[in-house]
């Protein structure tokens, strides 16, 4: 009998610790934008931005609303999570689950306050919006109706406080907001999904801010990040239970916290500088579970994005043998495959770079488009702001279709195979050139810039009108281009 009890206890323990698989499926968002003003450059664009666990990137999906304001957007999602929902320059967070069919209607003139949810997770998102409104207007928390005062105080602590003082500030903030949430849960009939998300988000926002302080304090005080090192006891809040909590993945703050802990752990074990291959081997030795799955996946993405294809091939079998989250494995395999298997957009042209000295290269490129207004976009595959602008660039390209304007994209500081595959993945229509290190160095020196994204605007006579032009998301860019189109 004792043996049977022991065996049953073992089965229960195994079941309790078994790794569940996060569901992967498409999310379908539909809805209507009321009072849509189609004359505004970005008024008909809907964007969803996901803080993706598998890649540690912000994945961007976009759609264009019809003239009557209706829209439809579908994207693949692994696990329930909060994601960004953006219209024009306005952004809110919504909670989505794989397989959702959700309708979101809103008024273009009153975006945040007019949101109406129907279908899957409607109650969850209604509760979320009501909770935010109640929290930011709570007299005890004293946020004055918005989150600005909260982040102002947080940023001040990150800049001015020493490690222990900052930890005390965050702990007190977490205690106050937890008390408010617990009282709010007791006083309202809420969706269980919202309650689970709210508890996880509050906790991992706290933990993530504790970790981010290490480099933010250095940045705010104009120090080298490696020169500021808190004492070891500052990090006593880190524990395995929080890192391996699968249910915490509903909050995008979990991903931020896990990545911060990963960097801290690697620097402790391997030093400030180490080989990526050592990182992967060390990860494989960690306890099985969601944290290891996330970090192995992100490590593989790091190799793919860095163009270390041979090392990816070496690690791929070990990565698959990990038997981690199926959605993460599929995501990594897709990222690897897209380097070799892709289809460029119909209106995307890969051009051979003119054979000329770097300094005159720009003029050679522009001379290919006489009598055209040319908008030039310097971008890189690893640059998140570059990629975030691409939906706006596509929208602008569509609005100006048939007119004498050319969109020229100059890929820089990237792996050439990955560059081509991302043109396909992001659907970047236009004229494409790939610059080597020397070409980019010459151009960045010529126009006095060092980072990307960077934009130039050239008139129909081939003269540079702006060597630091507006981004595609800037509503003033379209009128500027139209003015150049109208001039003789």
Question: Can you walk me through this structure?
Answer:
This protein is globular. The longest helix is centred in the middle third of the chain and has 29 residues. A hairpin with a 4-residue loop joins strand 2 and strand 3. It is built from 17 helices and 14 strands. The N terminus is likely disordered. It has 3 domains: 96 residues, Sandwich (Immunoglobulin-like); 124 residues, no CATH class; 139 residues, Glutaredoxin (3-Layer(aba) Sandwich). The termini are far apart. The protein is of the alpha/beta class and 488 residues long. Helix 9 runs antiparallel to helix 10. Strands 9-12-11-10-13-14 form a 6-stranded mixed beta sheet. The chain has a 4-stranded mixed beta sheet with strand order 4-1-7-8.
Dominant shape: globular
Kindly report how far apart the N and C termini lie: 95 Å
Number of helices: 17
Query: Which structural category do the helix and sheet elements fall into?
Result: alpha/beta
What is the number of domains?
3
Identify low-pLDDT runs: 1-18
Rg from C-alpha positions?
25 Å
The number of strands is 14
Tell me the name of the CATH class of the largest domain: Alpha Beta
């Amino acid at each position: 009998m004792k043996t049977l009890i022991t065996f049953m206890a073992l089965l229960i323990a195994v079941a309790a610790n078994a790794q569940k698989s996060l569901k992967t499926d498409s999310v379908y968002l539909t809805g209507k934008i009321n009072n849509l003003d189609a004359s505004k450059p970005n008024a008909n664009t809907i964007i969803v931005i996901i803080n993706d666990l598998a890649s540690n990137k912000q994945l961007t999906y976009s759609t264009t609303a019809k003239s009557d304001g209706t829209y439809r957007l579908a994207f693949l999602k692994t696990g329930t999570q909060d994601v960004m929902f953006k219209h024009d320059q306005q952004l809110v967070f919504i909670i989505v689950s794989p397989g959702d069919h959700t309708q979101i209607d809103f008024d273009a003139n009153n975006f945040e306050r007019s949101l109406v949810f129907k279908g899957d997770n409607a109650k969850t998102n209604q509760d979320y919006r009501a909770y935010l409104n109640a929290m930011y207007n709570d007299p005890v928390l004293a946020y004055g109706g918005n989150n600005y005062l909260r982040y102002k105080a947080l940023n001040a602590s990150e800049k001015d406080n020493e490690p222990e003082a900052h930890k005390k500030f965050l702990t007190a903030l977490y205690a106050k907001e937890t008390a408010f949430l617990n009282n709010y849960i007791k006083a309202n009939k809420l969706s269980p999904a919202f309650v689970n998300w709210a508890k996880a988000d509050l906790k991992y926002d706290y933990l993530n801010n504790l970790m981010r302080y290490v480099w933010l304090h250095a940045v705010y005080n104009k120090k080298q990040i490696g020169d500021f090192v808190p004492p070891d006891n500052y990090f006593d809040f880190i524990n395995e239970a929080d890192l391996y909590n699968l249910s915490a993945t509903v909050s995008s703050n979990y991903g931020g916290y896990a990545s911060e802990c990963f960097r801290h752990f690697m620097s402790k074990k391997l030093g400030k500088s180490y080989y990526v291959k050592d990182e992967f081997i060390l990860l494989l030795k960690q306890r099985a579970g969601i944290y290891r799955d996330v970090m192995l996946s992100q490590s593989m993405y790091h190799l793919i994005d860095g163009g270390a294809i041979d090392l990816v091939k070496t690690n791929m079998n070990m990565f698959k043998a990990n038997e981690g989250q199926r959605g993460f494995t599929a995501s990594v395999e897709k990222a690897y495959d897209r380097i070799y298997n892709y289809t460029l957009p119909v209106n995307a042209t890969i051009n051979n770079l003119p054979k000329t000295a770097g300094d005159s290269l720009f003029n050679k490129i522009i001379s290919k488009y006489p009598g055209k207004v040319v908008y030039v976009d310097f971008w890189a595959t690893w640059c998140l702001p570059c990629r975030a602008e691409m939906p706006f660039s596509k929208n602008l390209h569509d609005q100006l279709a048939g007119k004498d304007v050319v969109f020229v994209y100059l890929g820089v500081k990237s792996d050439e195979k990955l560059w081509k595959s991302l043109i396909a993945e992001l659907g970047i229509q236009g004229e494409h050139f790939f610059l080597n290190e020397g070409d980019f160095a010459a151009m960045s020196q010529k126009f006095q810039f060092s980072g990307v994204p960077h934009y130039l605007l050239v008139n129909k006579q081939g003269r540079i009108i702006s060597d630091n032009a507006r981004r595609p998301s800037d509503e003033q860019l379209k009128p500027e281009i139209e003015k150049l189109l109208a001039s003789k």
